[in-house]
Amino acid sequence: SPSRGLGDVYKRQDNGMNTSTSRADGFLGWIERSGNKLPDPVFIFVYCILGVIAASVIATFFGVSAAHPVSVDADGNALIISAESLLSSENIRRLLVNMPSTFTSFHPLGYVLVVMLGAGVAERSGFFGAAMSGAMSKAPAFLLTPAVALIGMLGNLATDAAYVVLIPLAGVVFAAAGRHPIAGIAAAFAGVSGGFSANLFPGQLDALLFGITEAAAETILPTWDANIAGNAYFIVAMTFVFLPVIWYVTDRIVEPRLAPVVSGGGTLTMDVKDPSTELTLEERRGLAYAGYACLAVVAVWVFLAIGPGTPLLDESATAEARLTPFFQSLVAAFFVLFLAAGWAYGKGAGVVKDHRDIVRMMSEAMADLGYYLVLAFAAAHFVAMFNWSNLGLIFAINGAEILESSNLPDPMLLTLIIVLCAFINLFVGSASAKWALLAPVVVPMLMLVGISPEMSTAAYRVGDGATNIITPLMPYFPLILIFCQRWQREFGLGSLAATMLPYSALLLLSGIILTIVWVLLGLPLGPGAMVEFAL
What we know:
By secondary structure, the chain is mainly alpha-helical. Helix content is 66%, strand content 2%.
């Protein structure tokens, strides 16, 4: 039923997520055992804060410093950046007095909360689920695999909905087409999670990551502002590069090696629309209304951004910066787009009776962000205290000097960043948590050697997605295992990891090649965003 929120589906399925995975041996078993010993990401930040405090005291005692490459003092000499103890009276006072503002001024927080207010309505009204179900059911048989992969990558805009609706639905669709259902699940999982950053449109992830990037970049250039469309061209290219990779791996490598399906092994009741049936009249009407609403929102934003005197066009700025207000308004644009589409769908499908339903859906969306708020509180203080200590800036300056002296070309530097992110992703699944840890050093360091914050973010996204699908520590990994066991009881953790390994390897390789080509050609990453950066 479109009136039932995906949160209800997830809660019921979550009962099976404690499936034992302790028999995994070898490298995957080591990853699982090691990762299970890690604390919750919130406490990872707490321990990092304690580590930063200790490091700041030691660095201050030894007089660690670095010459700022851009800023100068009153005499015109390079400004000396010295480590500051976080146990000084000034920093203790700043921590305690500014704690509320430190939290609320955390860049990603406002971006995510605003976008998710709208996305929560689109999800709970059933718009995301119906749109994906309708798209899947209309896919031609010979294009079934690329259709699943493409919808999976586009489904990232729907966050959790892509996991709990699209992936099990792909298994049902493949089975109905006479193909192996686990191949469908694997293709959808590779699209949703392996191609996590690939998309045709910016969305919540862009707002989240660029909020963290902005905080990191401002340590070098305080006037740098994030543009959530800064990777728009790159993620579109990722989509078209990853699509044939997933298609090839599914049809040529994975499906031929899968064992025949053993039926009757599943205990999970799939809460997805049967692809052999058409959407109901109410669902089709809801999707039509949602389409009209989306067109209306796009038309309004285009109107506000073209022509003289419009609010989203800065007539007094240079030609390159005239559209800056438009790009900065994209967070609000996605909020309005998702809200309008979800509301229109709900009215058409009969799910939304009045404005109180909309308020309820938005409230439930905020309730689902409870854990994120706790994580953001810890991450905000880690980032702030790291900046107060000046350690991040000092490490970035010294690291940039090492990188310059190494004479490594930019493609090699970015390849190393991608591999590092892919490795860390095996142990820390949260995209925002990893970037909040890495960005304060990686972004300034690469800025100092001429690589833009947008390019640093793009490289991180390539590494972050590729290994999602092979680590048991990814939050949805056990859920995907249960989807597979619905069709084949003996399908275990090792089976799933082995099935997804070819996707992971080729997605990582193709992402690295794409990054290298992008840097060598000097292509723009998004509107106004280039690979190179000049202070």
